[in-house]
Specification:
The structure is a single chain. The protein is an alpha/beta fold. The protein has two domains: 188 residues, 3-Layer(aba) Sandwich (Rossmann fold), CATH 3.40.50; 151 residues, N-(1-d-carboxylethyl)-l-norvaline Dehydrogenase, domain 2. The chain is built from 19 helices and twelve strands. The strands form two sheets. It has an eight-stranded mixed sheet, with helices on both faces. The chain has a four-stranded mixed sheet with strand order 4-3-10-9, covered by helices on one side. Helix 4 packs parallel to helix 5, helix 8 packs across helix 14 and helix 14 runs antiparallel to helix 15. The chain is globular, with a radius of gyration of 20 Å. The two termini are 35 Å apart.
């Protein structure tokens, strides 16, 4: 396939290298030149760790229209806070039949992305999908060299318009058999467990982070008390999903399945996951565990919960703690109902209408 990778961070680097190694014609885009400067001439990405291969890129560019020109699949691999800007930039350049996959969408990334596409002037009949999580646990050692530390056994994907799901999955499965379809975006969005893990461990280890203490994020940070709190946040997330008729895995179930761990309690699963070993805790709050996971994960959880009278007090406490620490109003800047084109009084009708779309452009009248 002709594929565009949007974002040259750790995930984008790894996905671009892997897809190129499989014989696909891969274009890699990054907004800033600095991150891809060393790839402009050589254009080769080597993968080490769980994957041993090399891939030669077709194009490396900072021009998004050039990156997607002639491609059939567009893999967006940026932080979720960048989805709105990426969609706005893509909108005038998209062509009929192109498939856009958010890797991952976090919570309701697919809705925010569609809003931005329409506001950016989209008139092409395209398909938007969101993956529940990033397929790799990976680090970029240097431009052109990615260390794949872990590969998830399975990654769920939802698609709008829904009737194109099998087509999208068949395209993804050509290189990634781990991708599988779920019935709708509520399943992938409310299955966002990163929003439960990351902010809880970070904020409940506040004093250690303020002191810039070096500690293992999961093994040292996920104490019994922290894990107990995490399970309360997770319970709120699952209660919201049930209110909308969706069953999602607990964070314990998700962790054991994705990383092929023995079925055990959450504390042991976190501490015994080899892929989490050695991941050092942040020394600042100004990083994606809060700046991404709060506005694109916990805020939409809370907003959705309030619209259907589900208690979200543990979730809300984390949002408030993060807002206070970073002096940012995450609730107003995050994925609230307004930004998602939803309304509290008609939330069930809105989401049902979106799930029945035949074309993305119908979203203008379906839920907004």
């Amino acid at each position: 396939m002709n594929i565009a990778i949007i974002g040259a961070g750790c995930g984008g680097h790894a996905i671009a290298g892997f897809l190129a190694s499989k014989g696909n014609k891969v274009n890699l885009y990054n907004r800033s030149l600095e991150r891809v400067r060393l790839l402009l001439n050589n254009k080769e990405i080597e993968l080490i760790g769980e994957v041993q291969s090399k891939g030669k890129l077709n194009l490396v560019t900072t021009d998004i229209s050039e990156a997607i020109n002639g491609t059939e699949l567009i893999m967006v691999v940026t932080t979720a806070t960048g989805h709105y800007d990426i969609a706005t930039a893509l909108a005038p350049h998209l062509r009929k039949g192109q498939i856009i996959v958010l890797n991952p969408g976090r919570t309701f990334g697919i809705l925010e992305f569609m809003n931005a596409l329409l506001e950016g002037g989209l008139d092409a009949d395209v398909t938007v999908a969101e993956a529940n999580t990033l397929i790799y646990a990976t680090r970029t050692i240097r431009p052109g060299l990615s260390d794949i530390k872990g590969i998830k056994k399975s990654v769920s994907v939802s698609v709008i318009p829904n009737h194109r799901t099998s087509h999208v999955i068949s395209k993804l499965n050509e290189s990634y058999p781990q991708f599988y379809a779920v019935e709708n975006f509520l399943k992938t969005s409310l299955g966002n467990i990163g929003a439960v893990f990351h902010p809880t461990i970070t904020l409940l280890n506040k004093e250690r982070i303020k002191k810039k203490e070096a500690f293992d994020f999961y093994k040292d940070g996920a104490t019994r008390e922290v894990v107990d709190y995490m399970e309360q946040v997770d319970s709120e997330r699952r209660n919201i999903a049930r209110k909308f008729g969706v069953e999602v895995q607990s964070i314990r179930e998700w962790l054991c399945e994705r990383y092929s761990l023995p079925d055990t309690n959450l504390f042991d699963a976190l501490h015994n996951n080899p892929f989490y070993s050695g991941l050092v805790a942040p020394t600042t709050f100004d990083m994606r565990y809060l700046t991404e996971d709060i506005p694109t994960g916990l805020v939409p959880f809370s907003e959705l919960g309030k619209s259907v009278d589900v208690d979200t007090s543990y979730t809300d406490e984390l949002i408030n703690k993060a807002s206070n620490e970073l002096k940012v109003d995450f609730r107003s800047k995050g994925r609230n109902l307004y930004r998602l084109g939803l309304h509290a009084n008609t939330i069930f009708e809105d989401l049902k209408a979106v799930s029945k779309l035949e074309k993305i452009t119908e979203y203008k009248t379906a839920a907004r």
